[in-house]
Design brief:
Strand content: 35-45%
Shape: elongated
Low-confidence stretches: none
Order of helices and strands: EEEEEH
Helix content: 10-25%
Strand order of the largest sheet: 3-2-1-4-5
CATH topology: SH3 type barrels
CATH architecture: Roll
CATH class: Mainly Beta
Structural class: alpha+beta
Largest sheet: 5 strands, antiparallel
Oligomer: single chain
Number of helices: 1
């Protein structure tokens, strides 16, 4: 199963990469598919690539659902 995760852009490099923050994690991301992205934007990341931009409200709603799912997951 594949999962695309929303995250907030916190840094960008001239080479087309940068970092996002989501759920307390910082992840290195390739932004080559979205060259117009700016720090502060929200994006959906899949397999290390930012694949689309989304608004803050939708991103937060999705992250809230992820947290709710985590609570429902059985622990081993």
């Amino acid at each position: 199963m594949c999962l695309a995760v929303p995250g907030k852009v916190i840094s960008l490099s001239a080479e087309g990469s940068g970092k996002i923050e989501y759920l307390g994690n910082t992840v290195l991301v390739n932004f080559s598919l979205l060259p117009e992205i700016k720090v502060g934007d929200w994006v959906i990341v899949h397999a290390g690539f930012a694949i689309s931009r989304l608004d803050r409200k939708e991103a937060r709603k999705t992250l809230k659902l992820f947290k709710e799912l985590e609570k429902l997951s059985p622990t081993e």
